[in-house]
């Protein structure tokens, strides 16, 4: 990799300015850097790969919160939550080169075909302006770029055109326990595609089983966006870290410069022919709203009034307990089996959901040792009593898009640069709550068939978000009803693309990163043709 720049001054002649060095920004920069002068600006730091063991130690010590692992900053990352439901934004976001993929779980599934036509087929949500066939080749491209291990054993998944780049991880010991109960109940289990190496791939090692995948992979076997950011640098791109963009300067139909701050207290203007805003579903609308002007008094690219609107997340449903036999919990740090059997039963009353079979329910021996006061024989006794027989299930549930769920600005609070902080106004609709109930019913049936003593449940009354920020810069063909077109270019500005999960008209119930990557590759193709 080429050496990072020693200064944070603007690039003199940039063709493309990419804002955000997560998976979307990294992929776009990588695709364009061969032929164009690309500069990438990111609000957070560049993390040293060699520090990951240290970050792993933070992850397993109870004295540290999850946000501490990747150097969260309460002042820099300040936010508000004004909705009916509190939204804990800082629980699961990373600002820095690599973005959210530094701490993500790594599951990568394609949306189902009906997810693109939810209003027409299910009577709920909205239809996308593209369908599965439009995105299908980009899904395949994204799987190759991220490095996905999987198997074509899911009869409910959308059609594929080629095998996964790597074979799937083998089912875990606890998967085998679930399989016996599911076979009796006629519930189908199948493998889970993972963006982690089942074998050496793309110069990165195979998974070595650290087990702390979320929030840190010390080996680099789990994909993160530094792969493509560094590749873009090797191809000539310039990456500037700790450069939070404060606003976008513009005229009536073009962005002219990104104004960014630096740690020394200076502000710089990065000019470019084209701008790609890839800051995720919260920071992207925040930047647009902070770029208000006479031409755009309600925020940049916001002639529709929908910037920030239709904020969505996935809801979690879960259940677990203990068995009178070993389950080998926490031997695998990620999911190896799931179930999409009930996904396409969705309608206006109950949404799509997918079931997950946990490999890591209950405490690990390390967590138990670090969280108690026992030592020696007393600790061994507690481990014998409380470790090794836990079993659990999860589910992701779709949230219907609603205009009154939104990301706005709290003008009463500011960050470390004096900008209004994002305000997440969030609530959960009855359809999502009914879907959680349905997922819980199936989970209970499976666990009871196993003979488990159920000890915990996450249901409609105590559900929470999966931290998948979607819907805030909606994609569509009508400029009055959407923010970006099907190629993610803004309707209002001819040289600005918003490449984030904010473009999703609906969320489905699949983890969004593979769809983000596919849309980013599609947008990069459109950018290349436009430049």
Automatic annotation (TrEMBL):
<keyword id="KW-0274">FAD</keyword>
<dbReference type="GO" id="GO:0050660">
    <property type="term" value="F:flavin adenine dinucleotide binding"/>
</dbReference>
<dbReference type="InterPro" id="IPR000172">
    <property type="entry name" value="GMC_OxRdtase_N"/>
</dbReference>
<keyword id="KW-0285">Flavoprotein</keyword>
<dbReference type="InterPro" id="IPR051473">
    <property type="entry name" value="P2Ox-like"/>
</dbReference>
<dbReference type="InterPro" id="IPR017896">
    <property type="entry name" value="4Fe4S_Fe-S-bd"/>
</dbReference>
<dbReference type="GO" id="GO:0016614">
    <property type="term" value="F:oxidoreductase activity, acting on CH-OH group of donors"/>
</dbReference>
<dbReference type="Pfam" id="PF00732">
    <property type="entry name" value="GMC_oxred_N"/>
</dbReference>
<protein>
    <submittedName>
        <fullName>GMC family oxidoreductase</fullName>
    </submittedName>
</protein>
<dbReference type="InterPro" id="IPR007867">
    <property type="entry name" value="GMC_OxRtase_C"/>
</dbReference>
<comment type="similarity">
    <text>Belongs to the GMC oxidoreductase family.</text>
</comment>
<dbReference type="InterPro" id="IPR022357">
    <property type="entry name" value="MIP_CS"/>
</dbReference>
<keyword id="KW-0560">Oxidoreductase</keyword>
<dbReference type="Pfam" id="PF05199">
    <property type="entry name" value="GMC_oxred_C"/>
</dbReference>
<feature type="domain" description="4Fe-4S ferredoxin-type">
    <location>
        <begin position="197"/>
        <end position="227"/>
    </location>
</feature>
<dbReference type="InterPro" id="IPR036188">
    <property type="entry name" value="FAD/NAD-bd_sf"/>
</dbReference>
